Amino acid sequence: MFNLVIFGPPGSGKGTQSEKIIEKYGLTHLSTGDILRSEIQSGSALGKKASELISKGELVPDEMVQEMVKTVVHKNIQAKGFIFDGFPRTRAQAVYLDDMLGKRNVKVNLMLALTVEENELKERLLNRGKLSGRADDQNETIIANRIKVYNEQTEPVMDYYEKQGKLYKVEGSGAIDIVFEWICLVIDKLKQG
Ligand code: AP5
């Protein structure tokens, strides 16, 4: 099993690059943001709680996302590997993921961290907000809070993987296909050992 964490601030291209990675490498996509949005759409109790937090740009509680991730991994245990998109977002989530995979004798093989300058992130998210209808893309205050929450609570997760020798940073501000080429170089090198 080859498990990859795609990481980076809001708007850095995690979802965009995930689609391309999945197409090329056949991994199973696990996006906690997508799962939460489908819970919101279904009107579930979990979705209602998540909606309040997401629309302010805050994180939902660790236990809630951890449970969702465990369910998806359990259901797809035959997968060639997972691409974790938007998870882990706190150190506690990273520890949880290691424990959960460890119990199945597998591990995170690689963290790919996309780096994009803050003004570009804001511009991308505001542009998408004009079309997407995503509550958290709708105004500058919410977007600024998402970036603040990322800087304070999520960015430290990089250190966790760096200490394990699994962190690779990729410049995420070029054209989508160029960013993807860099990502492929990293994945292919790692897979060849
Ligand atoms: P989530 O859905 O994970 O949102 P996010 O991290 O804010 O990321 P985005 O989807 O906005 O951006 P992205 O990096 O995927 O970029 P994308 O490819 O879409 O989470 C949403 C919320 O759910 C969180 O705020 C939190 O509340 C909650 N949540 C989720 N997971 C959680 C967890 N584990 N713990 C707690 N709470 C959690 O691209 C963005 C835009 O840029 C697109 O329009 C795209 O076309 C464009 N673009 C992409 N790449 C390029 C490029 N190279 N050049 C130009 N434009 C580009």
Can you characterise this structure?
- There is one protein chain.
- The protein is an alpha/beta fold and 193 residues long.
- Helix content is 59%, strand content 12%.
- It has nine helices and five strands; from the N terminus they run βαβαααβαβαααβα.
- The chain has helices at 14-25, 32-42, 45-54, 62-75, 91-103, 118-132, 140-154, 157-163, 176-192, and strands spanning 4-7, 28-31, 82-85, 110-115, 167-171.
- The chain has a five-stranded parallel beta sheet with strand order 2-3-1-4-5, with helices on both faces.
- α1 packs across α9 and α2 (32-42) packs across α3.
- The longest helix is centred in the C-terminal third of the chain and has 17 residues, at 176-192.
- The radius of gyration is 16 Å and the shape is globular.
- The mean pLDDT is 95.
Q: Averaged pLDDT, please? A: 95
**Strand segment tally:** 5
| Coarse morphology | globular
Structural class: alpha/beta
Total helices: the number is: 9
Strand order of the main beta sheet, please?
A: 2-3-1-4-5
- What small molecules are bound in this structure? BIS(adenosine)-5'-pentaphosphate
N-end to C-end Cα span: 14 Å
Work out the strand percent.
5-15%
Order of helices and strands: EHEHHHEHEHHHEH
Rg result: 16 Å
List segments where confidence is low: pLDDT < 50 over at least 5 consecutive residues: none
Biggest sheet record = 5 strands, parallel
Determine the fraction of residues in helical runs and give it as a percent range.
55-70%
